[in-house]
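Q: Here's a chain of 310 amino acids. Please give me its 3D structure as C-alpha cells.
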Amino acid sequence: MKSMNKTILITGANSGLGKEAARQLAGLQETERIFLGCRNEAKAIAAKADLERETGRSIFEIVLMDVSSVESVRSAVTGMNQPVDALIMNAGGMGGKAPGQLTSDGVTQMFAANVLGHVALLEEMLKAGKLNQVAVFAGSEATRGVKKMGMKRPTLDTGSVEELATVIDGSFFGGKLDPMQAYGYIKYVGTLWMSAMARKHPHLKFITMSPGNTSGTAVMDDLPFLMRGIFKKIMIPYIMPMMGIVHSVEKGAHRYVTAITDPQLKSGVFYGSRPNALTGPVMDQSTIFPQLNDQRIQDNAEAAIHQFVR
C-alpha cells in the first residue's frame, strides 16, 4: 500500500524537475494541495497558471522562499498556515555565476542553494509541527562518483566535523572551486545530514533521491560559459543520449514521486542509479559507496552544518 500524501511542498517548483513533479503529483487522486516553493514571484505565478491549465486542477498555492537564504525559508515556514504530508527539497544547482562566493552565513553559494536553506526549512518545519510524513532531498550520483562525466568520488581524510566544515565554507577546495567536483562533495554532505536526521526522527521518513542525469533543467546554466556551452550544446543533446546517461525531466521527476509514495523505500537511505549509470532503476547507493552508512560521519556532517545555521 502506498503512502497517502494529500499535501506536498516542493522547492524550486517554477520550472524543470520541481514543476514536473508538481504536475505528476496533481495527477494522483489523493493529492489535495501542492505548495510551489519559488524564489521569483512572477515565475511562480506563470508556473501556477501553466500547471492549472495542464492538469485541470486548482490545487496549487505559491510559497515564496529563496532556499539560499536561511532567513527567507524561516519566514516562509512561519507564513505556512497548515502542515504538509511531504516535502520535496528539489531546489539547488551549481551555485550561480560565483559558486564559491560566501554568503552572509559563511557558506559557499553552491552549498547555500543546495543544502543550508533546506536544512533550515526542514528543521523549522519539524519544530513547528508542519511536516507529517516524509522529506525528500535531491541527491546526485556525483556523491558516489561518475566516471563517465569525470566526477571523482568525494574523498575525505578524517570525516571530522572540522574537515566537513571546510567543504561547507569552500576552503576544502583551496583557492579555486571546480563546480563539477564541488557539487559531489556538497551533495554528499547533504546526504549524510539526511541519514542523521532519519535516526533522530524515526517516526518520519527521510529519503535522499537522485533524479538522475536529466535533460531540460536549468542546472547547467550556472556553469562557466565554456563548460556550459559544451554540456548544453554537445554533451546533453548528442553525446549523453548515445552513452545512455541522460533521461527526460518526466523520468527524473517521477523518481521524486516514487520517493514519497513507495513504502518499500527505507528512511535514511540514498537512492540513485546503478553503478556506472545515471538513469534507469534506482538502488541503495551505500552498496556502491559504503561510507554513506558511517554514522560517525553522518553525525559529523550534521554538526558541521549547524556551525553555520544561526
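Q: Can you summarize the key feature?
A: The mean pLDDT is 91.
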